[in-house]
């Protein structure tokens, strides 16, 4: 299984009236063909901005991708001309957004919106595009698909609109699907249906996927690899079972301890919150972004030097964490040199 995409030292800033927002700070990782990567973290951690940067959909102004490379099948997506990037979007990399109502054009029929991409990227004529669109709607579980092609977005429920968005995203058989919290606006039962639908389609089509979420339970059930982000940086990354069962970063520990567990001991366990507030992203990053909220922090070190993203002690080679402390015993780790990325 080869590498499909490599993100190297991605830096994205927003230049606002209140100051510079340091949204994404030196994010680096590799995504393999067919792999599902779950990206988790609280609001403002850089999850969505990093994905929009990959797609080159950062609004400019105020946003700007300041540095980095996104190598996708031998091309740097941050360097290719805009007309080439438009051909990549939809055909090779597709994205599903959080709220389908704002992603669908309210004055165009569903059929028009799906067939547009098929004609542009696949070179289909009207008849072929309509047949493929009906086939896609059927595939995502929308009944009477041929007739529904003539309907408008407001004539669909929230869950059905999200199914339409999935059909549009998969219309050109992309090699990578980026799903940015696609079930947040839906109720729990519809969420489960959409997740199972995406999971089945991914396995059927063999594409890679980046699933962005704040819901650790969803990510645990979907992902091969999980990437925890905080303050615009990756703080822990590894196989999903390793990260959740052998957690190595204080922030990931805090996230897991704040979740209710169905396997908790009789009598229950108290949920613990992460004290403090997320970092002000207008302050230039220095040291570990989690320093102010961390119970393991080492003043004079953690707040001065960002630890490298490398395997923790006795962790597997592909289980990486950025922390100066061994959370298993609270002891400082030996100096591991300057920050580096996978």
Radius of gyration, in angstroms, nearest whole number: 21 Å
Q: In what range is the share of β-strand residues? A: 15-25%
Shape: globular
Give the total of beta strands.
14
Major beta-sheet overview: 8 strands, mixed
> What is the SS-derived class?
alpha/beta
Q: Which oligomeric form is depicted?
A: single chain
- Average predicted local confidence, pLDDT: 88
Q: H/E element string?
A: EEEHEEHEHHHHHEHEHEEHHEEEE
Q: Span from first to last CA?
A: 17 Å
Instruction: Point out poorly predicted stretches.
Output: 337-342
| Tally of DSSP helical segments | 11
Give the neighbour order of strands across the main sheet: 6-7-8-3-9-10-12-11
What share of residues is helical? 25-40%
Commentary on this structure:
There is one protein chain. The protein starts with a strand and ends in a 10-residue tail after the last strand. It has eleven helices and 14 strands. The longest helix is centred in the middle third of the chain and has 18 residues. It has 342 residues and is of the alpha/beta class. The strands form three sheets. Strands 6-7-8-3-9-10-12-11 form an eight-stranded mixed β-sheet, sandwiched between helices. It has a four-stranded antiparallel β-sheet with strand order 2-1-4-5, covered by helices on one side. Strands 13-14 form a two-stranded antiparallel ribbon.
Write the layout of secondary structure elements.
Blueprint: E1 3-16, E2 19-32, E3 36-40, H1 47-54, E4 63-72, E5 75-76, H2 82-88, E6 93-96, H3 100-103, H4 110-122, H5 126-139, H6 145-148, H7 158-170, E7 176-180, H8 188-205, E8 208-213, H9 216-222, E9 225-230, E10 233-239, H10 240-245, H11 250-257, E11 310-311, E12 320-321, E13 325-326, E14 331-332
Parallel strand pairs: 3-8, 3-9, 6-7, 7-8
Antiparallel strand pairs: 1-2, 1-4, 4-5, 9-10, 10-12, 11-12, 13-14
């Amino acid at each position: 299984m080869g590498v499909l995409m490599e993100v190297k030292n991605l830096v994205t800033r927003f230049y606002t009236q209140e100051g510079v927002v340091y949204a994404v700070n030196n994010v680096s990782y590799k995504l393999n063909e067919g792999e599902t990567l779950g990206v988790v973290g609280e609001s403002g951690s850089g999850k969505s901005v990093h994905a929009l940067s990959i797609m080159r959909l950062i609004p400019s102004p105020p946003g700007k991708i300041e540095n980095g490379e996104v190598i996708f099948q031998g091309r740097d997506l941050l360097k290719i001309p805009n007309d080439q990037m438009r051909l990549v979007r939809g055909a090779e990399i597709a994205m599903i957004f959080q709220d389908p109502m704002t992603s669908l054009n309210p004055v165009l029929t569903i059929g028009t919106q799906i067939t547009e991409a098929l004609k542009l990227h696949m070179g289909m004529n009207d008849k072929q595009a309509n047949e493929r669109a009906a086939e896609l709607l059927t595939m995502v579980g929308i009944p009477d698909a041929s007739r529904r092609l003539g309907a408008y977005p407001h004539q669909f429920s929230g869950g059905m609109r999200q199914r339409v968005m999935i059909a549009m995203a998969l219309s050109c058989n992309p090699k990578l699907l980026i799903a940015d919290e696609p079930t947040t606006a839906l109720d729990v039962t519809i969420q489960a249906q959409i997740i199972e639908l995406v999971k089945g389609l991914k396995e059927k089509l063999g594409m890679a996927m980046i699933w962005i979420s704040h819901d650790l339970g969803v990510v645990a059930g979907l992902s091969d690899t999980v990437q925890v982000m905080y303050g615009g940086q990756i703080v822990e990354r590894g196989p999903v079972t390793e990260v959740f069962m052998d957690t190595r970063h204080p922030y990931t520990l805090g996230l897991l301890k704040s979740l209710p567990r169905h396997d908790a001991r009789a009598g229950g366990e108290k949920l613990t919150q992460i004290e403090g507030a997320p970092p002000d992203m207008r302050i230039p990053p220095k040291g570990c972004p989690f320093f102010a909220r961390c119970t393991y922090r080492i003043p004079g070190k953690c707040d001065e030097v960002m630890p490298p993203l490398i395997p923790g002690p006795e962790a597997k080679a592909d289980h990486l964490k950025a922390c100066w402390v061994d959370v298993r015993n609270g002891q400082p780790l030996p100096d591991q040199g300057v920050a580096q990325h996978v």
